[in-house]
Amino acid sequence: MRETILLFHFSDKDRRNKLTRALLPLRMKIREVAREDYLQPVGYLAGNKDIAPVDEKYDGEELDGEMILMAGLSSFQVDQALKAVRKSGLGPIPYKAVLTSANQNWNVPKLFQEIKSEHEQMDRGSMPKQIR
Known about the structure:
The chain has one domain. 34% of the residues lie in helices and 14% in strands. It contains 4 helices and 4 strands; from the N terminus they run E-H-E-H-E-H-E-H. Helix 1 (13-23) links the parallel strand 1 (4-8) and strand 2 (29-33).
């Protein structure tokens, strides 16, 4: 699978363009995911050929915030991508994830809710210290 960064709910064109410009030098595939594809497994959206698509189209609510999913990146590449986002002057993008074997079969709303829940737990200080 090629190194890919998926963008979700970047409705502000200027923010989306700024983010894309910041990530382009890293030579990774950057793909904006349409809301109608939110029921697809995120691994499928990232290009994993072993994960089958679903036939359903999403017609629910938009995500509560912007989200980035990084797939097929090494730890060094993840660090580079995060550094590029910080240096872009874009401001915070709180919902970021890395594709794993644990989450690759989740759909977009499930992934978003998990990340959002983790953020809420961290904000309350209720996560175990080794995770924070």
